[in-house]
Design a protein that fits this description.
single chain, about 375 residues, alpha/beta, TIM Barrel, Lyase, Ornithine Decarboxylase, Chain A, domain 1, 2 domains, seven-stranded mixed sheet, five-stranded parallel sheet, 12 helices, about 25% strand
C-alpha cells in the first residue's frame, strides 16, 4: 500500500549540518544529542542512527524503554537516560548497558545493590537540583550525596549534571544555577580523586549562556533546526529538519456568507474557492491554528478557514487556480515561502517541542539522505 497523502519529510542532511554547527559553536565539548520523545517527533531510531554515524558522543533518552529500543536497533553509542528510575527497572539498565540518572540517596544505593547482585558496575550520572525543583538532590545537600556515591563499589560515576529552569528568559537565574553546579567542581575532584565530567546546558542555555558549558552540552532543539524564537537566527544558523506536507483532495466554490467547518467560525465574504486538505489535529496540526494558521499551495500562503478538524482542514484559496493533488505544506518551504515551527509557536503559544512531538504516529516519516 502506498503511504497516505499526508507525511512528514525528515531531512537527514540538515540534521548532519546542524550537528556540525553545534560542533563549531562548542568545538571542545562533548555532545549529548537529545533524542527523547521519539527524537522530538522526528523518529527515534532513524535519527539516532544518523547522529551516531555523524559523530555525536552520547545520546540522551527520556526513559528506559527508549534506551532499550536504541540498543535493540544496534546503537553502540553511550546512552544516558535522563528521567527518574524506578527500582525494578535497574536490572534492565544494566543488561542493556544504559547510563542511569541517580537523583537521590535511595536510588543510588538501590542501583549499587542491584549491580552487586548482577556482578556488574552501574554507570550513573548524579543529578543535582540547582533550582528547577523537579528531580535531583538539592545543591545544598550535594556533598553528602557525592560522598555516598563515591563510597559505593558498584557505582561508576560518569557525570554530574543539572538542568536549567529559565535558560530562555532569565540570565541572572541561569548564572545562579551555573554557579551552584560549578561550586561542586573542587569537592568532586577531592571526593572521587579524579575529574568527573559536568553538563548543564540545553539548547536555550547554549545560545544564551555559552560560558556555562562544562565538558558536555545537551542540544535538542538546535539539532532539529528549531529555536525558542526567531531572534536566535544569527546565533544559531541551523536548518529545519522536518517538513509536514499533504495535498489538496477536494475543491469547491462557496458563495458569500457561508460558514466553514465546525461551529461555522469562518464566514466567506465573497464567492471563493475552498480547498480541503487531509490533515488535522489527529495528525498534529494544532487546533489552535484554526482561523489563524497558513498553508502553502503553489508557493503562496493561504489561510486555514474555520476550525481544524480531526482529519481535515479547509483552506481559502480565493480565486486562484488550485488543482486536486497539488502539494500543500503545513510546515516547511515551497517556492520562496516558508512556514516555520517558530511561526506556529508565535501564532498559537505552543512550544517548539509541542509542534513536532505532536505530529502523531499515523503520519508516515519520509527520510531524505544527505
Amino acid at each position: 500500500m502506498e503511504r497516505r497523502p499526508t507525511f512528514a519529510e525528515v531531512d537527514l542532511g540538515a540534521l548532519n549540518r546542524n550537528l556540525r554547527t553545534v560542533r563549531k559553536l562548542f568545538p571542545h565539548k562533548g555532545i549529548i544529542a537529545i533524542v527523547k520523545a521519539d527524537a522530538y517527533g522526528h523518529g527515534l531510531i532513524s535519527i539516532s542512527k544518523e547522529l551516531e554515524n555523524a559523530g555525536a558522543d552520547y545520546l540522551g533518552a527520556g526513559f528506559l524503554e527508549e534506551g532499550v529500543a536504541l540498543r535493540e536497533a544496534g546503537i553502540k553509542l553511550p546512552i544516558l537516560v535522563l528521567g527518574g528510575v524506578a527500582g525494578f527497572q535497574i536490572d534492565y539498565f544494566l543488561e542493556y548497558d544504559l547510563e542511569l540518572t541517580a537523583s537521590s540517596h535511595f536510588i543510588v544505593n538501590e542501583i549499587d545493590r542491584r549491580a552487586r547482585r548482577m556482578g556488574r558496575c552501574a554507570k550513573v550520572h548524579l543529578k543535582i537540583d540547582t533550582g528547577l525543583n523537579r528531580i535531583g538532590v538539592n545543591y545544598r545537600r550535594a556533598l553528602e550525596f557525592l560522598e555516598t556515591a563515591a563510597a559505593l563499589p558498584f557505582i561508576q560515576v560518569k557525570g554530574i549534571y543539572s538542568h536549567l529552569a529559565k535558560a530562555n528568559t532569565d540570565a541572572d537565574f541561569t548564572q545562579v544555577q551555573y554557579r551552584r553546579l560549578a561550586d561542586l567542581r573542587e569537592p568532586v575532584q577531592r571526593i572521587f580523586g579524579e575529574k568527573i565530567p559536568f553538563h548543564l546546558l540545553n539548547s536555550a542555555g547554549m545560545l544564551n549562556f555559552p560560558k556555562g558549558a562544562f565538558e558536555f552540552v545537551r542540544p535538542g532543539l538546535l539539532l532539529y533546526g528549531m529555536r525558542p524564537d526567531m531572534s536566535y537566527l544569527e546565533r544559531a544558523p541551523v536548518e529545519p529538519v522536518m517538513s509536514l506536507k499533504s495535498e489538496v483532495v477536494f475543491i469547491k466554490r462557496v458563495p458569500p456568507n457561508e460558514g466553514i467547518s465546525y461551529d461555522l467560525t469562518y464566514t466567506t465574504d465573497r464567492l471563493t474557492t475552498i480547498a480541503t486538505i487531509p490533515i488535522g489535529y489527529g495528525d498534529g496540526c494544532l487546533q489552535r491554528l484554526s482561523n489563524c494558521g497558513k498553508v502553502l499551495i503553489g508557493g503562496k500562503r493561504y489561510p486555514i478557514a474555520g476550525k481544524v478538524c480531526m482529519d481535515q482542514i479547509m483552506v481559502d484559496v480565493s480565486d486562484d487556480r488550485v488543482r486536486i493533488g497539488e502539494e500543500a505544506v503545513v510546515i516547511g518551504s515551497q517556492g520562496d515561502e516558508r512556514i516555520t515551527v517558530e511561526e506556529i509557536c508565535e501564532l498559537t503559544g505552543a512550544l517548539p517541542y509541542e509542534v513536532t512531538i505532536g505530529i502523531t504516529g499515523r503520519v508516515p516519516r519520509l527520510y531524505l539522505g544527505d
